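Example record used in the benchmark description.
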Amino acid sequence: MLIRLLRTYMRPYRHLLWAVVALQAAQAAASLYLPSLNADIIDKGVMTGDTAYIWRHGGWMLAVSAAQVAFAIGAVWFGSRAAMAFGRDVRTALFHQVTEYSAKEVAELGAPSLITRVTNDVQQVQMLVYMTCTLLIAAPLMAAGGVFMALREDVQLTWVIVVSVPLLAFFVSLVVSRMVPTYRRMQEHIDEINQVLREQISGIRVVRAFVREVFEAQRYSRVNDQLTGKALIGGRLMGLMFPTANVAISLSSVAVVWFGANRVSSGEMKVGALIAFLTYITQVLMSIMLATFMAALVPRAAVSSERINEALDTPSSIKIAADPVTVLPRPASVEFDGVGFSYPGAEHPVLAGVSFHCAAGRTLAVIGSTGSGKTTMVNLLSRLIDVSEGAVRINGVDVRDLSPDVMWQRIGLVPQRPYLFGGTVASNLRYGKPDATEAEMWEALEVAQAADFVRAMGGLESPIAQGGSNVSGGQRQRLAIARALVRRADVYAFDDSFSALDMATDARLRAALAPHTRDAAVIVVAQRVSSIRNADQILVLEDGEPVGLGTHDELTATCPTYQEIVSSQLTAEEAERQNAGGNAS
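Model output (structure tokens):
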């Protein structure tokens, strides 16, 4: 998974990687040349007292060191550009993939997990790329070059390298094998923390209203402690690596000095060669230690790459037709033809056998108990999900044959939970029509009964907080309605979009809505009978199945389910009127 991800998204930056390899090779060559120069200065300058030789070769060492620094800076510069570009491209790919998901894929993977994958998981792989460019590429070059240069200085002492390097590599591989499952669980715990935190922030009013701060704090502490526990395990495993590498370097240095001193004493080795050999073995083991550090990053990056690829490889269940219809005919209409929908693995369908036709200039209302499938109908109409059976047609064309962009441009949708984006009133209304003029926006606000409070706020440039938290529920609904109306759509779908409005505002809005939507087909999902009794047709749903279709008067006479709904709501209204009369007396 990791290799596939790197191969796919690093391919455009091969020229940067080749530059990194070349610069790291030059840096390694300079680093390996310095101990040899130092050995010459000791043997031919210090031991013989030749000061001129020391100054001459010392200056050359400074030049080589300066070149080494320049090569290192260049390698880091190119490596950083490659790593940052890689992270940008992967985040972009994930963003576009997630925005193509239907509600089904978002529910399966989970919003908190998707957030973690786009942010933390990409960061882990990006860090691996960066550290590879700045450290890992140089490590094998230094290790191989160090062994070669050490052999040039003295062959008999190389047994120290032969013993120390395999032992260190074995220990590292043993620790890394334990780190992979630990890091996998860490990423899962990060998902859980994101989920709990999002819920607490979104539901802060509920938490405070029911005095559940202590419970939520404990809930957060529980998942936080789980992440901390796994992080400590991973930290301890990583912490074992560096002391072991340092011990290996120290013991190897002691062995080189101990056995090398005997060879210097017997005249078989020069002092400069011993110092150079000691430097080379330190460089070799330091390279192993750098590779050890990279080995600690690889498991976590591997786990993150699996999660990234899972999101990238998960296709949207909404498939675009091979030759989609890009020109939608007129007049406007909505047709459900034997529509059924079932969630995967569910025992019973959410919708079954739903059929109706709503022509331009007419309004179809949908009513039913909670969980009867009303919102699912709206989601099928706007193709946020696809039907399991039957067909949904807009203007006579199956939505599955339509280009999604063309279809969504012709639908004005007001969801059950209207969402406003951070910005201004104007920026939110222009989600409906990007080039909407001020006159068009004010017209939509007038129809939606929102113009008065928008003027009171300061006009179209009045600020709107994220989620519309600085306006009331009714104002949020009316702004969402205006956003849908400003686009002059062929089909309007209002999913319980008038629930937060009082009866008077509701009545005024519907009266203003009629002439505005005379050329459009209107679908209204509602809970109040008083809001839909004047609709041209009313569809009654019960447990996902249609049990009545007709006008208010027809359903009152023929549909028992509708009669129950009407009876319960009229009883409640009568009780309210009686209470109001008693209080007045």
